[in-house]
Amino acid sequence: MPRIGVFVCWCGSNIAGTVDIARVVEAAKDMPHVVYVEDNKYTCSEPGQASLRASVEEHELDRVVVAACSPRMHEPTFRKTLETAGLNNYLLEVANLREHCSWVHSDKDDGTEKAIDLVRMAVAKVAYHEPLYSLSFPVTKRAVVIGGGIAGIQAALDIADSGHEVVLVEKTPTLGGRMAQLDKTFPTMDCSACILTPKMVDAAQHPNITLMAYSEVERLDGYVGNFKVTVRQKARSVDIIKCTGCGICFEKCPSKVPNEFDLGLADRKAIYVPFPQAVPNKATIDREHCLYYTRGRCRVCERVCEAGAIVFDQEDELVEIEAGAVVVATGYEQFDHSVYGEYGYGKIPDVITGLEFERLVNASGPTEGKIKRPSDGKVPETIVFIKCVGSRDESKGVGYCSRTCCMYTAKHALQTREKLPGSRVLVYYMDVRTAGKGYEEFYKRTTEEYGATYVRGRVSRVYQKGDKLVVLGEDTLLARPTIVEADLVVLAMGMAANEGAGDLARLLGISYDQHNFLTEAHPKLRPVETNTAGIFLAGSCQGPKDIPDTVAQASGSAAKVAALLSRESLQTEAQIANVNQELCSGCLWCETTCPYKAISAKTITERVHGKEVTRTVAEVNPSLCHGCGACLPACRDGAMNLLGFTHQQILAEVEAVWR
Amino acid sequence: MKTYSYYPGCSLEGTAREYEISLRAVAPLLGFRLEEMHDWSCCGSTPAHATSHRLAVALAARNLNLAAAHDKGPDGLAVPCAACYSRLKIAVSDLARDAKLRADTEEAMGEAWRGGAVHIMALPEILARDVGPEAIERATVEPLNGIKVANYYGCLLVRPPEMTGFDDPEDPQTLDEIVRATGAEAVDWSHKVDCCGGSLSLSRTSVVSKLVADIIDAAQIAGADCIVTACPMCHANVDTRQPLAAKILGRRLEMPVLYITQLLGLALGVPARQLGFRSHLTPVTSLLRKLQDRTRGRASGEGGS
Amino acid sequence: MKVLDLGSAGDPGFEAQIAKLAHTSPAACYACGKCSAGCPLAYEMDYQPHQVLRLVQLGLKDEALSCSTIWLCASCITCSTRCPREVDIAQVMDTLRAMARTEGVRAALPKVPKFYSSFLGRVQAGGRLHELSMTILYKLRSGDLFSDLDLGIKMVLRGKLKPLPPRIQGRDQVRQIFRRVAEAERREEAAR
Q1: What Rg, from alpha-carbon coordinates, does chain B have?
Q2: B276, B8, A457, A611: which is closest to C36 by C-alpha?
Q3: Do C184 and B197 count as a contact with CB atoms less than 8 A apart?
Q4: How close is the nearest chain B Cα to the Cα of C85, in Å?
């Protein structure tokens, strides 16, 4: 006979405000198999837990009902408490009197009646609870980091420094990501390449890091501690061991292509290294624009390459990597300004984006760091910066704020005034958001020391008039329309998730939101984890952020990975599906339904009427099963049960409510 | 042959008579017919919606009911006036979403609302989509090559975009497509969809003069020989307020302002005198002369290939 | 300039009323100014369009109904088309104009509503607009007798202004529309 103890929690006034605790306690005393009832102000607190433990021991309880907040809050807490009291931690049932009762009702009588019903259900269920156990499984001590920008690089370095192996997978031919495209970084005005390239080199040379550049993750199988990642190493058509990065091949290559790294402001060749400080500094052939691949001609690179590194028949290679953890650090792209008809649909050459401006001021960029108009190469005198393009715009863009544009526009305004002392710099803004360390001071310098003029108001339209750009704005502070004939207009485009982010998320089995940003497990308290165990997030793939926050998040996810990989083993889920083989007919509908590929066919032998018979039944793999329960309705024989939520337990709850 | 119910609107009988004249002239040449609705009334235009929403919707709804009952125009309701087009489309949309408004409108009209399914088409839409550039090109007998046209859409053909829907609100192309089909060049210019001041022409003339000055200035910067429009209000303002605009710009102005159907008429071989140019306030002689010079040049062998 | 007492100033129901009548959400406006920046008439207005939205948000009904903005507005709808918060500013302007009329607030620019009523008066009479008599009526009402005289003559001579007013068969129905709408509005105004 079970000995059930019921512990009703006040949760301060969260539950007690709408539920009469005393009445619930009284009612619980009469419930079947209940031998002890107690109430506490905060059962989850130290004294509350101590009391629970003591009561279990004193009254020799072998089943516990905690009537409190949602099990998503404190079920793990109370399970641990039971364990310290010497009980199997699955002999617990939580009745949710808060989120399911007191927080959604206002009438105290109704709330109390419902609370009593919920407790009765929990008592009926827990009577049928049996001890459940987890199994241990080993952890592969390797991490895969997807994305070779600053987030991925930092995460890889930190994990590698903690003593674990890392495979760093980067889609483009080189590490560096967006930070490599930047000129200077706010608020220190450090040269971006100068602070980034040492880390890129460290990542390439670290004994624990294997760099796979020009590679993409194609498939993910397995589960936390035991992932199998299939990476496609794309064919560069260059043997990277022989290639010295000397550059003769792209010097001689006749085929010109707009350079993505320069956002089309300059060209590269069909065989190319994206930028001079690339890591690895190896050439890659862009087969879509190479004359040999498209028309069977040329092959100049092959002729001039002294190392003989050109391999035209090189093929993609699929590599399988075993890993215990995965970090996703796939970064962002700039919001597309060609949706803005009022700013020219992207067709006016001297209306450029923030990242394009960044390339212009970069000393190793298309204009060697000189601010020049893309249309005629002239030095602009009047430059207008327009903030919040794409951001905070529900009509054509996204509703969110992209966080970085206020600071990077202040930086651009400062750099413009610095490089072109005679220039007139206007910044059209709605707000100036400078929440980081040193940011507000930086903004002050931009206006005070460097003389940029900030105009509060959004710009309605930019159009071409001769070789000038007419900017129609508003100074809302003076309540007057403004008009400026500018030479260059820079649109501070917002940060959007990378185009392929949603596809990658589906491939990995992690959540993403309506903007394709990857979803963290909890927005406040679990920013680097996903809801999929073993997969972590770092950088702007999770949401717009600047470099300091990116690096912090990358190190955070690395810490989580290191903690995971330093464990000798992990525990399986205990509340998993279970097959009653005597009832199972072997139809295997459950196998098709299982989203975790946790069910497979098994052949068993039985003695039936004195004869040995072999037949097929279903079998659940305890390390893969997440206990989602999807297989239960698929089972037409009722052979499938969910431990911790068995048919018997659920029916007991239903009967309890009908009384 | 496509046959449309035809809702001319009040101005096409008065100040926009050239629009009606030229439309009637080109329709048969482009292969469509217009069957005027019997006893249509004023849509209310800006004065109605600026005075009372219910009045505006009811006045429009009466005409939509007439259109629904009119069985002689199976291919849609042709609405050449941009303001009428706007008011009719907005009325359909408002009545679809607001049950109380429907009840009020029915009470005001004294009849049930039946016009929700009327296929309302603006004239540029008919010309560019139903007739099509290829057909226009085929029907062109006097190609307008060498003529530069600034297509002026104004406000109500393209805004609000979710209501009008047949063209882009910032850089529309329907009139440009039609114009190109005649061989003329549709210039890229900055004031395609800028407001002319609309019905403020009498009550706040100074504003209309300034806006018209901006529009003509922009058309001239783009090298246009003429401005083409499909809105009676825009035509009236840009045509009649040029002397005032000239004062603002400090120079003489004589920018011909044509309805799209007048330009088409020239291309389709309709004699200029049958296209209503006489009633324009701003002479179109500079345009006609340019056309003649080219023809003369062609005829005498100059400028040929 | 008076100090704005946000504790007591303003009509608390005004914003909700405008929201309902204009089918939009003035509360969503964050005064970015894009509407005013693109408004072709903003240079002449006493309150910029975004400021009128602010007046609505704060319930400052009298100021909202007596500004010149609502009468200078040409209904070009550029504001609503470009608003990043999808506020239908143009509809708010219509709503304020209608409200100014039903509540008897004197228009800041009287000639504008006089033009509208001259126009509608002719429509009510014959079912269609007669531009010539409308113009004459407007000039008499506004006292602006002599401007555009030469233009008017030219237009008559070129046949643009028809001498005789149209009278459609259904003009009774049109008059009925005017009458019933006015009655319904009177009823609703009395009920408030």
Answers
A1: 19
A2: A457
A3: no
A4: 15
State the DSSP code for A342. Answer: G
Chain C interface, best mutation among A460, A463, A475, A483, by max C CB count within 10 A: A460
Asked if residue A168 lies in contact with residue A152, where contact means CB atoms within 8 angstroms, the answer is yes
Task: Determine, for residues B190 and A345 on separate chains, whether the beta-carbon distance falls below 8 Å.
Answer: no
CB interface of B with A, residues 143-182, below 8 Å: 168-171
| ipTM given for this complex | 0.95
The domain spans of chain C are: 14-102, 111-191
Interface of A with B in 308-347 (CB under 8 A): 341-342, 345
Q: Which of B159, B173, B190 is the best mutation test for A, with the most CBs of A within 10 A?
A: B190
Query: d(Cα A119, Cα A97) in Å, to the nearest integer?
Result: 8
A74: CB partners within 8 A, 6+ apart? A43, A44, A66, A68, A94
Binary contact (C37, A480; C-beta < 8 A): no
A465 touches chain B (CB under 8 A): yes
Return d(Cα B207, Cα C71) in angstroms, integer. 12
Shortest distance between the Cα of C56 and any Cα of chain A, in A, equals 16
User: Which residues from B are below 8 Å from A345, CB to CB?
Assistant: 170-171
Q: Is A18 helix (H, G, I), strand (E, B) or coil?
A: coil
Q: Judge if pTM exceeds 0.80.
A: yes
C118: which 2 tokens?
């001259």
pLDDT-derived band at C9, boundaries 50, 70, 90 = confident
What is the per-residue pLDDT across B250-303, written as a single tens digit (0 to 9) for each? 999 999 999 999 999 999 999 999 999 999 999 999 999 999 888 676 655 544
C43 contacts in chain A (CB < 8 Å): 480-481
Torsion of CA B274, B278, B279, B284, to 10 degrees: 110
Give the per-residue pLDDT at B16. 96
Output DSSP code: residue A526: B
CA distance, residue B304 to nearest chain C CA (Å) = 39
**In Å, how far are A385, B5, B203, B265 from B34, measured between CA atoms?**
51, 6, 35, 16
Cα separation, B262 vs B247, whole angstroms: 28
| Contact: A458, C37; criterion CB under 8 Å | yes
What is the spatial distance between Cα A430 and Cα A405, in angstroms, rounded to a whole number? 12
DSSP string, A528-596: SB-SSTTEEE-STTSS---HHHHHHHHHHHHHHHHHHHTSSEEEPPSS-EEE-TTT-----HHHHH-TT
In sequence order, the 6+-apart residues with CB closer than 8 A to the CB of A220 are A227, A228, A229, A230, A326, A507, A508, A509
The answer to whether A537 and A328 have CB atoms below 8 angstroms apart is yes
